[in-house]
Structure formats: structure tokens, C-alpha cells
Amino acid sequence: MAGDLNQTIFVAGHRGMVGSAIVRRLRGLGYSNILTAGRDELDLLDQRAVRAFFSTNQIAQVFLAAAKVGGIHANSTYPADFIYENLIIEANIIQEAHQAGVQKLLFLGSSCIYPKQAEQPMKEEALLTGALEPTNEPYAIAKIAGIKLCESYNRQHGRDYRSVMPTNLYGPHDNFHPENSHVIPALLRRFHEAVQRGDKEVVIWGSGKPMREFLHVDDMAAASIHVMELDAATYQANTQLMLSHINVGTGVDCTIRELAETIAKVTGFAGRLSFDASKPDGTPRKLMDVSRLKALGWQASIALEDGLRDAYGWYVANEQQTRVL
């Protein structure tokens, strides 16, 4: 990876799944001046605090991985929290990075920015071409706003603020809350506890038919740093003024049923799987078109079963810690 190994790089959201993976990757590459700040040190919802933080530190690059995240249940239950907090966090960081003269920033979005009925696989051009999935529309709108913030600061102020849109992520430091987590950590925990109790059956929300693409967070971190370190000419040649974001994924999907069967294998659950079709399925299919990222020289390397074993190993090692979630 090219770049000054002594430059100050601020990773916002370093305690989260993606932020912690980016920090691990940067350190592995030899970067020695990685700036982080927990909620007890910096409230990202407080614009004055964020402004003071940027004015105090000589920051060269920002990875904006901080966000309020959750699964279908959390998004449906707390829509106001999801849109408000995500809008404020990204607006504060992008504005104050600009005010402090930070030229390079990477905003991490989500594949939920695309319309519910977007043509599969979803290309970057699908943005704003149709209605969003209702269950996470507030969160998606906040992420779309983040993309447009980056584009607008580039257009008006000549900044180099880039955006990457990951598919469904999983891995170490994920949220394993039994109700407010995404599908992989929720199922890993559910199957693990079923094995411990000796259950004969595990019930999975939905029909099991929707198709999803999953990316290990270490691959996401590698892709994020790859995109950040592309020279401006190469990046601009592969994006457009009004289409600055880049999809990040594997380009391969599976059904929720197939995912559950793989998780049963990884956790050692030998009982019966049943699907509760009364629960919402969400978007029928979400597969990213990752041809643009491949053209820029990067593709995923961690297979799903291998990644699930890694995530499960982390969960088992940190089971007591995750109980507080």
C-alpha cells in the first residue's frame, strides 16, 4: 500500500466491526499514527466537539466507519434514531474534516441504498432509480445523504471524498444481540445456544427464500484501504462526477436457507431447521455488481464458510462480553 506510514489517519467508529477491521489492516500495513476516539472521548453527535477534535489533531485522512446499525427488527422499531443519528454523524465529520483542511476521506455506506426492486446484480447506476425497502428506508436515506455530501464537497470545494457501498458484512466485533443484530450474528448466536441447550429445532425468521450476499469484514477493510489509496486520476477515471460511490462485495449470493444450513454445519447443530414465514423477508434479492471494483484491482478472497468459522470463533471466545448486548 502506497502512502506515508507516519501520516495521521482518523478511523471514526474504531470499536465497531468495520472500524476495528480497518484499524487492524492499517496496523498490519505498517501505519503507526492511527487516531481513534471512543464515545467517552468524542461524541460524534456534538458538532462543537467534532470541530474541536479536528482542529486539535493534524489529520491527513479519515475513514468514516461510524454509524448506528441494526437488522430488520431494529430498523423497524427505531426508524427515527437510525435516520437522525446517521445524518448527524456523517454531516458533522464531513463538514469538520473539510473545515480542518482534510483532503481525503472515505465514507462507508450500505447496499440498502439501492431500490428494493433494483435489477440484479445491482450496479452503482441504480441509485435513486426506484423505491427503497420500507423496513430500512430511514437508514438508507441517511446513507444516500452521505454519498451526496461527499460528492457535493468534491464539486464545491475540490475535496477528494470517496464512498464505498458494502454488501452485508459479518465477522469479529459484530453485534450479536438476539433481536437487534443482522442475520449472520443472530443465527450464529441462535444456533450456538441451541447446541448448548440440546435443542432439536431452530426457527429462522422468514421463508428462507430471499437471496443475500455476504462479505467478511476483513475483506471490507482491505477493499476500503485499496480504494482510499488509489491515485486520483485512476479513481476519477473509473467513476463519474455524479456517481462517485463504488460497490464492495463478493459478487456471489446464497439463499437464507443455504446460509442457515452452513451456519448449522459451522456450529455443529444437527437438529431440524424451520422457517417462520409470518416474519418479514425484506428485499427478495441483494447482489452487488462489483465489476467496477474488480477493474480497479481488488476482489474478495475469504470464502463464506471460512469467514463464518472465523466469526463464530470470535463469538465463542467473546461470548461473555457479547452477553451485555
Automatic annotation (TrEMBL):
Gene3D superfamilies noted in UniProt: NAD(P)-binding Rossmann-like Domain (3.40.50.720), UDP-galactose 4-epimerase, domain 1 (3.90.25.10)
Pathway: Nucleotide-sugar biosynthesis; GDP-L-fucose biosynthesis via de novo pathway; GDP-L-fucose from GDP-alpha-D-mannose: step 2/2
Residues bound to NADP(+): 13-19, 108-111, 143, 166-169, 182
Recorded catalytic activity of this chain's protein: GDP-beta-L-fucose + NADP(+) = GDP-4-dehydro-alpha-D-rhamnose + NADPH + H(+)
Gene Ontology biological process terms from the UniProt entry: 'de novo' GDP-L-fucose biosynthetic process
Assigned keywords, A-Z: Isomerase, Multifunctional enzyme, NADP, Oxidoreductase
InterPro entries to which the protein is assigned, alphabetical: Epimerase_deHydtase, GDP_fucose/colitose_synth, NAD(P)-bd_dom_sf
Functional summary from the UniProt entry: Catalyzes the two-step NADP-dependent conversion of GDP-4-dehydro-6-deoxy-D-mannose to GDP-fucose, involving an epimerase and a reductase reaction.
Protein name (Swiss-Prot/TrEMBL): GDP-L-fucose synthase
Source species of the chain: Pseudomonas guineae
Gene that this polypeptide is encoded by: fcl
